[in-house]
Amino acid sequence: MKRKSAYLALALAGVLVGALAFSQLEFSFPGSADSVNAPPVAVANRANVAEAAPSLKHQSIATLQDLNNAFVSIAESATPSVVTIFTEKTVNRRRISPFDLFGSPFDDFFNIPPRDQDGNGSKEVLKGLGSGVIVSRDGYILTNNHVVDKADAISIRTHTNRRYDAKIVGKDPKTDLAVIKVEAEDAEFDAISIGDSDALRVGEWVIAIGSPLGENLARTVTQGIVSAKGRANVGLADYEDFIQTDAAINPGNSGGPLVNINGELVGINTAIASRTGGFEGIGFAVPSNMARKVMQALIDEGKVTRGWLGVTIQDVDDNIAQGLDLPRTEGVVVGTVVEDSPAEKSGLKTGDVILEIDGRKVDDTVELRNRIASTSPGKTITLGVLRNGSMKEIRVKLSELPGQEVTQQQEAEMNDLLGFSISELTPELASRYRIESGRNGVVVTGVDRASKAYRAGVRAGDLILAVNRKDITSYEEFSARVAEMKKGDLLFLLIERQSSKVYFAFNL
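Above: the chain's sequence. Below: its structure in token form.
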């Protein structure tokens, strides 16, 4: 009996100590004294973008009920900023001919009509659904590019179940982000406060909000932690710096917010890693700091301009460190230095190991690439470089990343005319498609399987060397050649595929 009394006393002591420690935790709540005098968080510096609502402020938690109420308050604060996005896209469905099995020569011989002229063809409206988050009171909404890309019509539904038409302000496929806007004089939107994603720590609680699987599940709230930061090489976008979370994210959540315990936006939910297509505890979100910069550029300029150094780079592993007599496996080693690039003009050389940018350490190629790209063209940066065992400081004035002059609308029109999409050849694309590094030109990144280009034999990974017997070495040159063409014209391409050159010709 005495032993049981001793155990009971120890248990009560443990509860009291735990309660005392738990009472020191702080969470954010709306309407606290601190929030009254706090300055509003500006979404953008421009007058046409309203300020977001102030973030939640701190309040102590003494009981489990307080903890429960804290999560409720966070969800209630963030949910009104979340919208369901509906898209519609009209596509042509071509009658399937038995001769399709044998390729385009039989189509031409038997005079199979084009898909848009075929009387047996039909049009079909494809409907899509995703999520978005309101970032200004005058109707700017942040979402994923893949949610609204190529949509003919876009509408949103708010938490009050009101539906509004929306238009695309700008898209950035390289980060899979887009900004849309609702024009409604009678509407005042609840904007979310944008937090600092760099301040996130692994293990922090976060909440994901969106419309998984369908509109009937709109504004679903799930809770988890930050599982990791800086995830890259996932294959979702060109510029990756994802927040990984185990908060449940499913199809339809794309474009919705990832929220911290202050009720602030810290990420845009983008994708899941799954073997089954369902939730497996591995979700990815674009960090809010990256999203804020892209959003601002799209609102101000309609496009994103990125800094360009002009080198190919690779991570330093044990073997490279040994080969270059490096004391540690750190930094990024320079491979090819592009002719007449900012890197060449500043004196950067093959074999240089970049350890710092403006005094901040560089850990890997992903970090270097993202930091260069997020720096405005024309700005001068200082690189800390290890060369032949000695540290050097090299000042580089960045220029604009080539291949960005074509607007989103022009790019969409060009892709529709061609039946395939292209991109400036980057080191990442060269590695993906096994193209020799250091090459110039444009590479095919996707082909519409119902297009004449696909039937002619054009495939993703093809390196385009010439258009209509004129050599091309850049995205701008390719775009200029295609701009002179119209539907029905003959497109004559010289393509390199797996070190072999081949011609393809077809009518647009």
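The chain has three domains: 1-298, 307-400, 408-507.
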